[in-house]
Amino acid sequence: MRLLLLRHGQTDWNAAERYQGRTDIELNATGLQQAEDAARRLAETDLHAVYASPLGRARRTAEIAVRDRGLDITLDDGLMETAGGDWEGLTYAEISARWPQDFAAWRAAHPEHGPVGGETPAQAGLRVIRTLRGLISASTPTQWCQHDDQQVLVVAHGGCLRAATALLVGEGQSAAASYASLERLQNGRMIVLEGEFGERDPGHEGGRQTSWRIADYNV
């Protein structure tokens, strides 16, 4: 199976370095163009399913990315961005001034340090993995683990997609090292993962080992 994890296009809050979290901000002109660019990159890709966060910036990116292809887009709250708690709506400069230690820990990319009053990256990543397991299992209930040629597009948010990737490919190193080793996912860019969901994945009871690998990043 190939998971194509696409981050939504840019918003005005992205451009201003303002923490969005669950706040529903729409794409700006640059973001709409990034979604069009993603559509062109995906034009020759055979997709079996499309899942997206219901937040407008992700939903609109998904709509543009698969426009005129006759594919249904399944929206799920489990694919929403990391909850930003007290930080939502504030610029990074404002956050740094009010919570300097918490902000520094978050910027250092540790999966257990998230926005004050919100989710940690680890919590958000695990939520996304569990959501995808459930969605894919429901769509192919008898053989979903064995679909080697299945390609699934997931349109969501940079923070939670990066965290989910770190958890899925982090076998052999700590979650902190796996997460810190991944650069931020850019607007309108994808992570391509290859593997299959299994009983020992993060998000499954008792799971930690994984078959997933990164085939491409920020493409």
UniProtKB/TrEMBL annotation:
It comes from Micrococcus terreus. GO terms for molecular function: phosphatase activity. The keyword Isomerase applies. SUPFAM superfamilies: Phosphoglycerate mutase-like. It comes from the Bacteria. PROSITE patterns: PG_MUTASE. The keyword Glycoprotein does not apply. Keywords: Glycolysis, Isomerase. This is Probable phosphoglycerate mutase. The lineage of its organism: Bacteria, Bacillati, Actinomycetota, Actinomycetes, Micrococcales. Pfam families: His_Phos_1.
